[in-house]
């Protein structure tokens, strides 16, 4: 396998659980999306308050998988947190209320008149009104990847190096790379897949996001707040503040413009002093249709891809990693909604 971000970590976990032998190659890139993202699980998104795609399937699998990995690694990374959603006018309130009473949404949405915003009431500038989402969570995906990496190293299952495509040999019954033979190689490279000579034909977009890690020791916030920006509780009075979205980036470095934007939004919102500790940036592996990329290369079946988790990787990752593991080990047909063949593209053209 190539890449040990969230996608690589999860597919390795499920393949090992299925009794398969794995070996990962990863260069531990410091600005990988997994290291920067907050790991938010948000069941209802967008201006129209629509359930995230396949969320009824995704959330139970995410809860189960992250709990299993917590036990395996002796860490705590899965934090159930309701999501407070700021509403800014009567129309938004009415739309929220209407959706909250839809039977298909009642498991997730709390009507506005039942919401108590807790400590946000005294420590932030109030919005017009608020809604609340159940089944939200924050997953420390960077911590997960870091600890899983050390577990892999201790087991002799990870090589820390950049992958050299010139050393990859395609065999009749598999692949060989610097003495390692395998039935398939799974590419989980995130935004770097644009440079993969076998899968660069796929419609990657790549979205640059930036976030601040702040210390707000007096806040005591326990829920995730969406109020123009996200305020996401971490540990020890620290909060993830983000994020920006840039489809026209030229690098993956933190920018002063984004720092200023996030700082201004936080200043407008917060009634407490805070200190910015870090400014992070990464390229999210986003895809044209906002769906993951899974499947085998149309000309080289020993080459497999798992990518495109984008902005919702914490919720998408476990379900689709399990699915790909089932495809590879049990011959389960790949779901057409994530199959790379859905684009009808030819890598030879």
UniProtKB/TrEMBL annotation:
Question: What highest taxon heads this organism's lineage?
Answer: Bacteria
Q: What cellular-component terms does GO give this entry?
A: cytoplasm
Q: Which InterPro entries match?
A: FAD-dep_OxRdtase, FAD/NAD-bd_sf
Pfam families, A to Z: DAO (PF01266)
Give the stretches traversing the membrane. Answer: none
User: Residue limits of the FAD dependent oxidoreductase domain?
Assistant: 2-326
What is the designated name of this protein?
FAD-dependent oxidoreductase
Q: Which organism encodes this protein? A: Flavilitoribacter nigricans (strain ATCC 23147 / DSM 23189 / NBRC 102662 / NCIMB 1420 / SS-2) (Lewinella nigricans)
């Amino acid at each position: 396998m190539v890449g040990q971000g969230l996608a690589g970590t999860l597919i390795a976990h499920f393949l090992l659980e299925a009794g398969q032998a794995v070996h990962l190659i990863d260069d531990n890139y410091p600005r990988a999306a997994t290291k920067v993202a907050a790991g938010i699980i948000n069941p209802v998104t967008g201006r129209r308050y629509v359930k995230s795609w396949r969320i009824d399937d995704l959330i139970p699998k995410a809860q189960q998988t992250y709990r299993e990995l917590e036990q395996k690694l002796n860490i705590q990374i899965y934090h159930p947190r309701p999501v407070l959603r700021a509403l800014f006018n009567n129309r938004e309130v009415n739309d929220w209320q209407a959706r909250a009473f839809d039977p298909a949404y009642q498991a997730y949405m709390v009507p506005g008149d039942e919401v108590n915003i807790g400590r946000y009431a005294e420590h932030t500038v109030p919005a017009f009104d608020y809604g609340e989402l159940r089944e939200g969570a924050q997953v420390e995906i960077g911590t997960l990847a870091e600890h899983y990496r050390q577990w892999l190293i201790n087991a002799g299952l990870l090589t820390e190096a950049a992958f050299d495509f010139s050393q990859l040999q395609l065999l009749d019954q598999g692949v060989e790379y610097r003495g390692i033979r395998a039935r398939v190689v799974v590419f989980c490279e995130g935004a770097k897949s644009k440079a993969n000579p076998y899968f660069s034909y796929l419609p990657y977009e790549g979205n640059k996001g930036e976030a601040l890690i702040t210390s707000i020791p007096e806040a005591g916030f326990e829920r995730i707040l969406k109020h123009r920006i996200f305020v996401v509780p971490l540990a020890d009075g620290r909060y993830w503040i983000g994020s920006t979205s840039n489809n026209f980036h030229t690098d993956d470095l933190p920018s002063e413009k984004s720092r200023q934007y996030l700082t201004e939004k936080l200043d407008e919102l917060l009634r407490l002093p805070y200190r910015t500790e870090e400014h992070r940036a990464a390229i999210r592996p986003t895809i044209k249709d906002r769906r993951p990329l899974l499947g085998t290369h149309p000309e080289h079946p020993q080459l497999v891809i798992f990518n495109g988790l984008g902005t919702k990787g914490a919720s998408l990752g476990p379900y689709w990693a399990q699915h790909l593991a089932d495809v590879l080990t049990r011959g389960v047909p790949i779901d057409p909604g994530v199959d790379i063949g859905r684009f009808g593209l030819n890598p030879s053209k």
